[in-house]
Design goal:
A five-stranded mixed barrel has the order 1-2-3-5-4. The protein folds into two domains: about 120 residues, no CATH class; about 70 residues, Beta Barrel (OB fold (Dihydrolipoamide Acetyltransferase, E2P)). α2 runs antiparallel to α4 and α4 packs antiparallel against α5. It starts with a helix and ends with a strand. The chain has about 200 residues and is α+β, with helices and mostly antiparallel strands. The longest helix has 29 residues.
């Protein structure tokens, strides 16, 4: 009871402007702490653009998410504490609001960037063979003519270089180093390629 009275003795005489900043700083700091604690234990999902698994299955990667609950909590937390620091420095009211808002936006940008790159590290890079169609490749192991055997090609697909099995309908063997283009995917595992003429 005595401690509560001491807090009220301190809080009561403060100007309304400073009281608002104290309320924002404390309230959103607690929310930010709880939200990030839950996040560590998998108790929440902070997705502005849908479920992570749905995004990965679509093979689109993880989008840059600026407006999320986590980022808004971060904005108001930094907004509040920066504002209080500015108030204690004796800055004018418009300058306090301007600096605290800029600091909050910077915090949102940093958090969005951090979670974007963290999510990219965890991104499911499972190869979808159809993404190789129309790609240009280089023959790694000779591909026998007229689908009489399987060779290998090197190509860039889904942002990474890969070595994949390939066959050809061409009437001549495609030797190592030949430049080919992917025509289609057979049985979802072998590329059908043809020699580039240009």
């Amino acid at each position: 009871m005595i401690r509560l009275l001491n807090i009220m003795d301190w809080f009561g005489p403060l100007p309304v402007f400073e009281k608002v900043y104290w309320c924002v700083a404390i309230f959103f700091s607690l929310l930010f702490l709880v939200q990030n604690t839950l996040s560590l234990f998998g108790g929440e999902h902070d997705q502005a653009l849908g479920d992570v698994d749905d995004v990965m299955d679509a093979d689109d990667g993880i989008g840059f998410q600026f407006f999320t609950i986590r980022n808004l909590f971060g904005f108001f937390t930094i907004f509040g504490w920066t504002g209080l620091a500015c108030i204690s420095s004796g800055l004018s009211t418009p300058l306090v609001v301007l600096i605290s808002a800029a600091a909050g936006l910077l915090m949102m940008l940093l958090m969005a960037t951090l979670f974007y790159y963290t999510a990219r590290l965890a991104y499911n890079g499972t190869l979808k063979m159809e993404n190789a169609v129309n790609a240009i490749a280089t023959v790694y192991l000779t591909i026998p003519r007229s689908r009489t055997g399987v060779g290998k090609v090197n190509l860039k697909v889904q942002g990474a270089f890969r070595e994949l099995d390939a066959m050809t309908d061409d009437g001549e063997d495609l030797r190592t180093g030949a430049v080919v283009s992917v025509q289609q995917v057979m049985n979802n595992e072998i590329l059908l390629v043809t020699k580039q003429t240009s």
